[in-house]
């Protein structure tokens, strides 16, 4: 067991291991290299787990945004075409601006979903 750090008795004083140097009386090994390696491996596993959780949350938020865009797209298209819940007499029926809103919202949904693919 090769120590990485030494601690002086019950104090907060700590020194790093140096090749060719042996601490004097009162200095005790604090961590071995094996313990440090285990802690680093544990931190890497936790980080990967957190990254996976964050990815799921981001993908979920992006999907909700894309669905909101699709709702707008379908609502604007229904208005443009005069389909239910519209009667066809509302302002915006057969209006190029409303048709453009529908197309733009659809493009927005596609762009948001493309962001999801980019994060993989």
Plain-language structure description:
This protein has one domain (3-118). It is built from two helices and three strands. It has helices spanning 33-81, 96-118; strands at 3-8, 14-16, 27-32. It has a three-stranded antiparallel beta sheet. Strand 1 and strand 2 (14-16) form a beta hairpin. The longest helix is centred in the middle third of the chain and has 49 residues, at 33-81. It is rod-shaped and about 95 Å long. The two termini are 41 Å apart.
What is the number of helices? 2
Report the helical percentage. 55-70%
Q: Which structural class fits the helix and strand makeup?
A: alpha+beta
H/E topology pattern: EEEHH
Distance between the termini: 41 Å
- Specify Rg, calculated over alpha carbons: 31 Å
Main traits of this protein?
120 residues, alpha+beta, 3-stranded antiparallel sheet, 60% helix
TL;DR of this structure?
With 120 residues, this protein is an alpha+beta fold. Helix content is 60%, strand content 12%. The chain has two helices and three strands.
SSE layout:
Elements: E1 3-8, E2 14-16, E3 27-32, H1 33-81, H2 96-118
Antiparallel strand pairs: 1-2, 1-3
Helix pairs in contact: 1-2
């Amino acid at each position: 067991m090769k120590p990485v750090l030494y601690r002086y008795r019950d104090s907060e004083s700590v020194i790093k291991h140096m090749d060719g140097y042996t601490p004097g009386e009162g200095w005790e090994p604090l961590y071995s290299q094996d313990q440090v390696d285990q802690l680093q491996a544990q931190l890497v596993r936790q980080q990967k787990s957190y990254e996976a959780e964050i990815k799921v949350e981001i993908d979920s938020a992006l999907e909700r945004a894309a669905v909101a865009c699709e709702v707008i797209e379908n609502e604007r298209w229904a208005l443009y075409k005069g389909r239910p819940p519209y009667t066809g007499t509302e302002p915006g029926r057969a209006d190029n601006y409303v048709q453009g809103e529908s197309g733009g919202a659809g493009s927005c949904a596609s762009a948001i979903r493309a962001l999801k693919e980019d994060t993989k």
